[in-house]
TrEMBL record:
<protein>
    <recommendedName>
        <fullName>GDSL esterase/lipase</fullName>
    </recommendedName>
</protein>
<feature type="signal peptide">
    <location>
        <begin position="1"/>
        <end position="20"/>
    </location>
</feature>
<keyword id="KW-0732">Signal</keyword>
<dbReference type="GO" id="GO:0016788">
    <property type="term" value="F:hydrolase activity, acting on ester bonds"/>
</dbReference>
<dbReference type="InterPro" id="IPR035669">
    <property type="entry name" value="SGNH_plant_lipase-like"/>
</dbReference>
<dbReference type="Pfam" id="PF00657">
    <property type="entry name" value="Lipase_GDSL"/>
</dbReference>
<dbReference type="InterPro" id="IPR001087">
    <property type="entry name" value="GDSL"/>
</dbReference>
<dbReference type="InterPro" id="IPR051238">
    <property type="entry name" value="GDSL_esterase/lipase"/>
</dbReference>
<comment type="similarity">
    <text>Belongs to the 'GDSL' lipolytic enzyme family.</text>
</comment>
Length: 368
């Protein structure tokens, strides 16, 4: 009797296993993304290869970058997937399916129908930010590139169908870090910090970004995710330059960035009130990092890869890496590790706290 019960139990377990396997297969076979396309604007947090052929020191298409990425060093500024890779995955896009503009600007229009990534390391809201690193694609230029993509889609689908498609896509804008790191807080090269108070500078950035987001809206974007800046004063490279306060971070940088973040949230609110049929959401990157449980991360004040005075903030070519990458918040001296990106992305997509996003999270934006 007991024997039969055991067999029955095993059979049941097998059936359950099989059916959940089949369900998963089903899920993947019909794994349509939640929105038809995903367009990405920004800097090194989002870049997936646009700087590879530019004359700049802001490049990452060499080892050990990509050590945990299936295709190796692609031009992503981290060890594995970056923030937007995780968001794209959450939205149901197959891994690595949003091409860099550098690869998708010519050739078949089919390549751009699911979205394009325009992001460029060292790029800022202001044209001149990041200039000391060499060439980069500033936000205004990224929008011009997008205008080219939109024209190609209109040529292919006709205005009506193209508009329908473009209205449904999600647009990601994560930019502004270089306007601080590679401009305001680089006084040996830029005069901005001598001319403007932090609050006046934040206003200038937000006024410019407001125009840029309106241009994106004119290019038919209706669902836009805007990321707040993280705790830039806690970046090991900034601590190296300025020295740490008791917080372990450069307080004046975090304070300046907070003015921008608060203003950005208000800007999102204004745009939602002023632009018809458009939804902008704000992701509170700083709030998410301040309230996330450390998980596997035990080291937040040092880079995992080897960095030299000359290579800083980036890894040295073919340098050593830490023995356990999941324990590090930072991959190099400026960029989060894949582990840190995955935490932020999870809460940007599905908010854990009410303060994580405003007025709601990416999951809800996708459903509109
Ligand atoms: C982009 O193009 C370069 C050069 O042709 C190629 O090496 C790289 O793999 C391409 N990247 C992607 C993501 O297609
Ligand atoms: C636009 O979409 C409709 C409906 O899906 C289709 O019948 C039509 O052929 C499309 N037009 C173009 C120019 O592709
Ligand atoms: C942070 O440190 C700097 C330099 O050591 C110092 O001048 C500044 O007063 C400190 N700021 C705060 C808020 O403690
Ligand atoms: C939205 O409209 C209000 C009132 O017309 C105006 O004061 C504000 O500057 C506008 N905001 C944006 C971001 O356009
Ligand atoms: C807003 O969306 C509705 C429904 O899709 C549409 O009928 C209306 O024309 C849109 N309004 C504007 C100003 O685009
Ligand atoms: C971000 O979140 C923190 C707490 O998680 C909150 O104190 C802060 O006000 C939020 N910032 C913005 C701009 O919403
Ligand atoms: C790396 O660290 C994590 C978290 O502390 C731990 O779970 C994991 O086993 C470690 N991996 C190795 C290879 O030591």
């Amino acid at each position: 009797m007991a024997y039969w019960l055991v067999i029955l139990g095993k059979l049941l377990a097998l059936i359950l296993l099989l059916s959940s396997f089949l369900q998963q297969q089903h899920h993947f076979a019909n794994g349509e993304p939640q929105v038809p396309c995903f367009f990405i604007f920004g800097d090194s947090v989002s870049d997936n290869g646009n700087n590879n052929n530019l004359a700049t020191t802001a490049k990452s298409n060499y080892q050990p970058y990509g050590i945990d990425f299936p295709k190796g060093a692609t031009g992503r500024f981290t060890n594995g997937r970056n923030l937007l890779d995780f968001i794209a995955e959450q939205l149901g896009f197959l891994e690595d399916s949003i091409p860099p503009y550098a690869n998708a600007s010519v050739g078949s229009v089919e390549k751009v129908l699911k979205g394009v990534n325009y992001a460029s390391g060292a790029a800022g809201i202001l044209y001149e930010s990041g200039r000391t690193r060499g060439d980069r694609i500033p936000m205004d230029k990224q929008l011009i590139n997008h205008q080219n993509t939109v024209s190609r889609i209109i040529n292919k689908l006709g205005n009506k169908n193209a508009t329908q498609l473009l209205n449904k896509c999600i647009y990601s804008v994560a930019i502004g870090s270089n306007d601080y790191i590679n401009n305001y807080f680089l006084p040996q090269f830029y005069r901005t910090s001598r001319i403007y108070t932090p609050s006046h500078y934040a206003e200038i950035l937000l006024r410019k970004l407001s125009q840029q987001l309106r241009s994106l809206h004119m290019l038919k974007a209706r669902k836009v995710v805007v990321y707040g800046l993280g705790l830039l004063g806690c970046i090991p490279y900034e601590v190296r330059l300025y020295g740490a306060n008791v917080s372990g971070c450069v307080d004046k940088i975090n304070e300046a960035v907070m003015l921008f973040d608060n203003g950005l949230k208000s800007l999102v609110s204004d745009l939602n009130n002023n632009l018809t049929n458009a939804t902008f959401i704000f992701i509170n990157s700083t709030g998410i990092s301040l309230t996330s449980s450390p998980g596997s991360i035990t080291i937040s004040n040092a880079a995992c890869c080897q960095v030299s005075e000359a290579s800083a903030p980036q890894c040295i070519l073919s340098g050593k890496t830490c023995s356990n990458r999941t324990q590090y918040a930072f991959w190099d001296e400026a960029h989060p590790s894949e582990t840190a990106y995955s935490t932020t992305a999870a809460r940007a997509y599905r908010a854990l706290l009410r303060t994580d996003s405003y007025p709601f999270d990416i999951q809800r934006l996708a459903q509109l």
